[in-house]
Design brief:
With 342 residues, this protein is of the alpha/beta class. It folds into 2 domains: 213 residues, Rossmann fold (3-Layer(aba) Sandwich); 101 residues, UDP-galactose 4-epimerase, domain 1. Helices cover 40% and strands 16% of the residues. The protein is built from 11 helices and 13 strands. Helix 1 links the parallel strand 1 and strand 2. Bound molecules: uridine-5'-diphosphate. Uridine-5'-diphosphate binds next to helix 7 and strand 8.
Length: 342
């Protein structure tokens, strides 16, 4: 019988790409979302890409304990991938309690319900933000976590700890994996699903594509005086489809009993540092256009450079990032044109 995976926040950017890969790998998927930061576009896109019209969609909020309980009673859930969370770093500094209450409460309900239902496998979407400004590059899973610089980052650390402690307390009845994402970018090659930022994008690639299409006048590159080869910050940009495939590997590892520890952590990145300027140049080249950009002061809270050592995920999960930065940036541009209706 097919295993069923609940994808909380499954109508969002990462969740929808993960739903596609899970279905294509032979899993049943239940999508649950409160639509606080997305609309039906990506859910409809998932149905089109997979040719499946019967993907269960539950409109609910994981902060609602009763609704979470009902969801687990209505579906036989073998594993949960938890995405449902607020994610704007800047807003989290201004409205910390909004972030603590939503991000912590929703995961608490997921974990409590997983325990009440006799255990299940839980995959948590964490972030490289837990490493702060690393002393040594690239970062491995053993690199120390550093005090979070935003409430958003702090919720990622707290949720990792909630999962670790629950796994230990239940003696493995609940098993857990935390995937620490680096910088997910791009869109599905079909251009039917992708990122839909509300308002002015905070992240680099949506800002680039919106500038290229004319929605924004000019990209500001935050800082060109960093101690990096070209003075701009370096990140590890990971293709969204590659990232989604890592979730399939992790879920399969859990469901097939291949975990070496009941709680495991994996870095999900390429191992390739790319500077902001390099990314802009690559975007211009692969899409054959000129981008309007200028150098601006540094953005508060940005780290100089961070990229992953993905060896652990490569060797243990048999997962590896495959797409080139050019393919990824072409997919981001195709998606922007798709949503602009061009
Ligand atoms: N960035 C930029 N201009 C923008 C948005 C981002 O120069 O309009 C830079 C940012 O300073 C960082 C990199 O792009 O060095 C990636 O930022 P993003 O917000 O996408 O991800 P982060 O690494 O902060 O999670």
């Amino acid at each position: 019988m097919k295993k069923t995976v609940l994808v909380s926040g499954g109508a969002g950017f990462i969740g929808s790409h993960v739903a596609v890969e899970l279905i294509q790998a032979g899993y049943e998927v239940v999508v649950a979302d409160n639509f606080s930061n997305c609309d039906m576009t990506c859910y409809e896109g998932v149905k089109k890409i997979t040719g499946r019209n019967d993907i269960p969609l539950v409109k609910m909020d994981f902060c609602d304990a009763e609704a979470t309980e009902k969801l687990f009673s209505d579906y036989r859930i073998d594993a949960v991938i938890h995405f449902a969370a607020y994610k704007a770093v800047g807003e989290s500094v201004l409205k910390p309690l909004k972030y603590y209450s939503n991000n912590i409460q929703s995961f608490l309900n997921v974990l409590e319900t997983a325990c009440n239902h006799g255990g299940c496998q839980v995959l948590f979407s964490s972030s490289a933000t837990v490493y702060g400004e690393p002393e040594k590059l690239p970062v491995t899973e053993e690199s120390p976590r550093q005090s979070a610089t935003s409430p958003y980052g702090n919720t990622k650390q707290i949720c990792e700890d909630m999962l670790r402690d629950t796994v230990h307390a239940t003696e493995g009845l609940v098993k857990g994996i935390a995937l620490r994402y680096f910088n997910p970018i791009g869109a599905h090659p079909s251009a039917l699903i992708g990122e839909l930022p509300r308002g002015v994008p905070n992240n680099l690639v949506p800002f680039i594509t919106q500038t290229a299409i004319g929605k924004r006048e000019c990209l500001s590159i935050f800082g060109n005086d960093y101690p990096t080869p070209d003075g701009t910050c370096q990140r590890d940009y990971i293709d969204i489809v590659d990232l989604a495939k890592a979730h399939v590997c992790a879920v399969t590892r859990m469901l097939e009993g291949k975990m070496k520890q009941p709680y495991e952590i994996f870095n999900i990145g390429t191992g390739r540092p790319v500077s902001v300027l390099e990314l802009v140049k690559a975007f211009e080249k692969v899409n054959n256009l000129k981008l309007n950009y200028k150098f601006a002061p540094r953005r508060a809270g940005d780290v100089t450079a961070i990229w992953a050592d993905p060896t652990h995920a490569n060797e243990e999960m048999g997962w590896k990032a495959e797409r080139t930065i050019e393919q990824t940036l072409a997919s981001a541009w195709a998606w922007e044109k798709h949503i602009a209706g061009k």
